[in-house]
Write a structure and sequence with these properties.
Helices cover about 45% and strands about 15% of the residues. The chain is an alpha/beta fold and about 325 residues long. The strands form two sheets. A six-stranded parallel β-sheet has the order 2-1-3-4-5-11, with helices on both faces. Helix 12 links the parallel strand 9 (about 270-275) and strand 10. The longest helix is centred in the middle third of the chain and has 18 residues, at about 195-210.
């Protein structure tokens, strides 16, 4: 494919290259009729401005880097869409990378994106402080963390969710349905301050409502089989009401319960973090603690835009979680 150049436009419009450059970049004085002829030639030829050349003339490129752990995860897909949509409406294109929950891959993407002279980055960080994350601070690259934070990096604003309101409402729903024992599957909490906070919040709330002896908490890994032994141990302890701090674990559990012939909303009651579309398509529909992903994404993008435009350093912001009760929470059987 041969790209149209300003020399091609000059030949079509019968003007000089310098005149075309002034007309297309709105610089210098040029007769309106000449400018109109040049713009018409550019449209007819299908001219696409060279962003690299434009970037050389400006301190901004109009390109933002976005890094998420796994674009296949519906939650992060929704988050990326909300961020990209807000940035696009503000005139920015988004370069999206996936860290695959690996700190080394995360750092490699950051270095690669920096080489493209991006205006800044929005990151769902993986793990703790790394050399590449530190370099963003050192180089004063406008950066926002969304969904997760990194301990020891207060210089970077964070937009995440407050797990307390949603968890409090979900536990209240379990209590109202007669449950005495509650299980919480934390997810892969290693190096995840966000999942660790959810677990701590659950332990505090559930311990006060049900008594610590009736609260069962275990974590999992990114393995697709890590849920099975956890669920087995909890059910052997008489637990039939579960909250999942990580939606991918909930999806595994739904499959496991189905293969065991257990009825969700009957034999088992279940609540998951993240209001995935899948959870509303299943039968029964799954009760969720929503992080309000659209709000997190658009707010994170807006803070990024404020940073790029040279505004004051914004404060981190929290979005309240909201509990949506659905059919996956049913009444507890006697003596459960």
């Amino acid at each position: 494919m041969a790209y149209v150049t300003i020399r091609d436009i000059a030949l079509r419009s019968g003007t000089s290259v310098s005149t075309v450059s002034r007309a297309l970049n709105n610089t210098g004085r040029i007769a309106p009729v000449t400018k109109s002829r040049i713009e018409k030639a550019a449209r007819e030829l299908g001219y696409i401005p060279d962003s690299r050349a434009k970037a050389m003339r400006s301190t901004k490129t109009g390109l933002a880097g976005l890094l998420v752990p796994d674009i296949r995860n519906p939650y992060f897909a929704d988050l990326a869409y909300a961020i990209q949509d807000t940035l696009f409406n503000a005139g920015y294109c988004t370069s999206i990378g996936t860290s695959s929950e690996d700190s080394a891959q995360q750092d490699a993407y950051i270095v690669s994106m920096l080489s493209q002279h991006i205006d800044g980055m929005i990151i769902v960080p993986r793990g703790g402080r790394t050399a590449a994350l530190e370099s963003l601070v050192t180089m004063e690259i406008p950066t926002v963390f969304v969904d997760r934070h990194v301990s020891g990096m207060p210089q970077i604003p964070v937009v995440d969710s407050d797990p307390l309101p949603g968890l409090q409402a979900a536990l209240g729903d379990f209590q109202a349905h007669g449950y005495k024992k509650i299980g919480y599957i934390s997810g892969p909490i290693l190096d995840s301050p966000t999942l660790q906070e959810r677990e701590y919040t659950f332990r505090t709330l559930a311990g006060a409502l049900f008594g610590e002896e009736n609260v069962f908490v275990e974590s999992t890994s990114f393995s697709h089989t890590s849920c099975l032994p956890v669920l087995r141990r909890m059910r052997q302890s008489g637990v039939n009401a579960f909250i999942f701090g990580y939606s991918q674990d909930a999806i595994q559990a739904i499959s496991i319960f189905g293969s065991q012939g257990a009825t969700i909303g009957g034999d088992i009651s279940l609540v998951s973090f993240d209001d995935l579309e899948l959870f509303q398509l299943l039968t029964p529909k799954i009760s969720v603690v929503s992080q309000q992903v659209q709000k997190i994404g658009s707010l994170g993008a807006q803070i990024f835009l404020n940073l790029v435009e040279g505004g004051e350093q914004p404060d981190s912001q929290r979005v309240e979680t909201v509990y949506f009760p659905r059919q996956s929470v049913g009444c507890a059987a006697q003596d459960k």
